[in-house]
């Protein structure tokens, strides 16, 4: 029995160590400089009512954890109807998570892609605050790119996203393009065949 317990304990050790390593890697992606930019932007965007967090990751998490600041932020980016109808601070965990998920739904509606979206537990449980930063950065980039007059911050804080240039081509243009490609391929073919010396029998002098 004693041996089994020791083996069990030994097996538990590495798995805990691994999860600790994974968490450390996630934490290392958290950017303190980006935190400052995001805090500055959210404060400007939402006004003094949202206050400011204590510096550092834990302060950042505590500031956003109940979802109210995030909901104020997303609402400020919509010129017309506000997507989050009710913003109410609550000490209850499920209410805070509900408020966060309202923000996430609104952010998706605004245009943030699923790959840029954090999960509620990333923020609420502090599992991946770098992912929270990524979502907010994507939101800032979108606000600058859309240029709807709702963004209130320095335009250099976030990258402007490349917008799609959809071009319409007529059938004639498409056909002409195919002909050019065909000609190029033909000339390359000729050149490569003539230019290559291998494959021919060598002349022995």
Automatic annotation (TrEMBL):
Record-linked SUPFAM superfamilies: Calponin-homology domain, CH-domain (SSF47576)
Residues in Calponin-homology (CH) domain copies: 32-143
Entry's Gene Ontology BP terms: actin filament organization
Any one Gene Ontology molecular-function term assigned to this protein's record: actin filament binding
PROSITE patterns attached to this UniProt entry: CALPONIN_1, CALPONIN_2, CH
Protein family per UniProt: Belongs to the calponin family.
Record's protein name: Transgelin
Species the sequence originates in: Amphiprion percula
